Amino acid sequence: QSLSSWNKPHGFVLPGCKMAGKTPLFRLTDCAVNCYTQWFAGNLSCPWWDPPENPETDGKMIYREVPLSQQRDVARTKMLRYNLIIITELLRDVEYVNAVERFLGGLPGLAKRDAHPWCEFESHKANKKIPLVVEEDTLRNLTRLNKVDIGLYREMRDCFPEKEDGNDGGGTATATATAATTTTAYDYFPRWDPERFERRNDTV
Question: Are 36 and 149 contacting, i.e. CB atoms less than 8 angstroms apart?
Answer without folding.
Answer: yes
